[in-house]
Specification:
Layout (H helix, E strand, L loop, with lengths): L4 H24 L10 E2 L4 E8 L3 E8 L7 E9 L1 E3 L2 E6 L3 E4 L7
Antiparallel strand pairs: 1-2, 2-3, 3-4, 5-6, 6-7
Length: 105
């Protein structure tokens, strides 16, 4: 499939314009970050932030948080990612935990 040069230039222009708009919008918003000692998560398992550096986060998974059968698992470390306006890490390689308001359970 071939496109005319005008269509290709228009596409490239719109793509670059979109990148500029995204960069401008990203600068306007405040980055939401994880805090040490806070608990994050909404389902049965929540995650407590034990330690945080610029690139990694150490967390502990807690099952049945705040109940009589609460169970704390071993501490693990994960890479800290920046998604648009918030920090994120992948717990156990499969659960996406986002920095939002700490869990109030």
């Amino acid at each position: 499939m071939y496109f005319s040069i005008d269509v290709c230039i228009a596409f490239m222009y719109n793509k670059n314009k979109l990148k500029i708009i995204r960069a401008q919008n990203k600068g306007d918003k405040k980055m939401i970050k994880f805090e040490v000692g806070k608990v994050y998560g909404t389902d049965a398992n929540v995650y407590e932030v034990i330690k945080k550096t610029a690139k990694t986060i150490t967390y502990q998974e807690i099952a049945h948080y705040g109940r009589s059968n609460e169970k704390r698992y071993e501490q693990k470390r994960a890479k800290l990612l920046n998604w648009d306006t918030r920090e994120v890490f992948l717990a156990n390689g499969r659960h996406t935990i986002e920095a939002t308001e700490p869990a109030e359970i």
